[in-house]
């Protein structure tokens, strides 16, 4: 039977299982007595084994079976999880993933030195934890029908995976017909039980010599006997055929399982896989239709206004549904990071855990893809350069195990991603010295950046603090690429650090692809836009108290330091102060000359080199007129 059409289904399902496995195993290492996770890992290995056996991918089947056996020993309390057992399990997951990647690009999985080494290491563990041998039950006659072929085969060479290979042979024979029965049974073979010859009853239309030739192609098997049964004079259908098929019998008949059903594990709801680039094209088409609908408003007669209103309503609904389809949970990129933190900490001789809050937060796929590399880089930096070694942490009064935490929150049209560690923090003075030593900035300018905008200092192209000794080695590498990725998404990057206590990176990103809720403001006689998500509240007529740099607004029991937007932008005020925009953070009241309407508009990234200017999220290009800049108030006035 041709199973090639199920390869894509096999790849997608197996990749999902492997991602779940990696997450489960990392969690299990931190809680080795968690029986639910042990059983989950065992079932997931079993699923991969069954799916790979169905597809005929022998190397994947063999390794998944051995890993399943290893988890079974863990489940029975014969092997402990921590240490080399977990290393082996995760190495096995990695190798399975590489084979699945081969299948995805059309290559057949092939055993290699790496897989043989994993097999050997697992075999040693299994040998040292072998359960008492089971007593072999006497063989029973096989179930067979008239005309079924009887086969007896044995392995040409002894093998520790005899049962597994017997199960694969049984599955291969399905290409010739139906294996009615076998001894040992399919379940026993999957469990690794085969100590002698393998006997099978095969129902097939092929003659015995064809079956013999089919088995002889497999060099690992030697044929003992192939016997043909008595052929009945008539088939069962011919003997009892009456010209009409009884509907009740047809309903009770058990059809042969569809290979797709074997490969696909059961799910509580049906899902449909859609190409990501197709969704991008669909989103662009919907945006174009909405723009055309706006243009039509000035061209159609008033009698068609109702129709146009209905058209715009439908387009809004379609756009909402398309955006919903495009959303994926943050866990898509944070789950693999659990393994990254675990492996990097072990390699560096450290101890670290990753905690994620808000992993189920759905984000637009564009945001996920744009922030994936940046978040991964920040996590790696936190483990490799931020967290201290266990003895150093204990000497500083900290726990020996370091913590890296990711928190995701949705604030209306904005997503806030925080990544923090409780490590050594960043020493701004050290960064200043390195920037000066490397000739990147004059000392006065570097010190000013360290006080006012640490992100810009960290993101200087070429800045590195890597030395042979130093807990902060390499902390600046790649920050320019991270900042560029965040800005390209229409977001901002902030950093706060406390030497000896830890570091926090904050990524503020638009939650929806393109569309952002904006409000017009006037400063220095110029109209600009700000994201509503950054503004907590607007005070129409603020009462300003204090003088000079100490001016503030009293509101809801708190003092809000006052700053004039025009002054901060280097513009000359074109009129008296108007309303005050109260920022979500920091606690600042920003004075503008006027506030305009609020609207949703597509945010476009600024072209280079303008995109490196601080305090700007992007621009909005109206149907007519000049582009309007979108300010980043939090970036402009952040501490």
Structure description:
The chain has 639 residues and is of the alpha+beta class. Helix content is 43%, strand content 21%. The N and C termini lie far apart (66 Å). The protein is elongated. The strands form 5 sheets. It has a 6-stranded mixed beta sheet. It contains 22 helices and 22 strands. Residues 133-138, 230-271 and 468-477 have low confidence and may be disordered. A hairpin with a 2-residue loop joins strand 12 and strand 13.
Outline of this structure?
This protein has 639 residues and is α+β, with helices and mostly antiparallel strands. It contains 22 helices and 22 strands. Strand 8 (402-411) and strand 9 (414-421) form a beta hairpin.
Note the beta-strand portion.
Answer: 15-25%
Q: Write down the overall mean pLDDT.
A: 78
Q: Which secondary-structure class do the elements indicate?
A: alpha+beta
Shape category: elongated
Number of strands: 22
Q: Unreliable stretches, pLDDT < 50, 5 or more residues?
A: 133-138, 230-271, 468-477
Number of helices: 22
Query: How are the strands ordered across the major sheet?
Result: 14-18-19-17-16-15
Largest β sheet strand count, sense and barrel closure: 6 strands, mixed
Helical percent range?
Answer: 40-55%
- Kindly, what is the distance between the CA atoms of the first and last residues, rounded to a whole number of angstroms? 66 Å
Radius of gyration: 33 Å
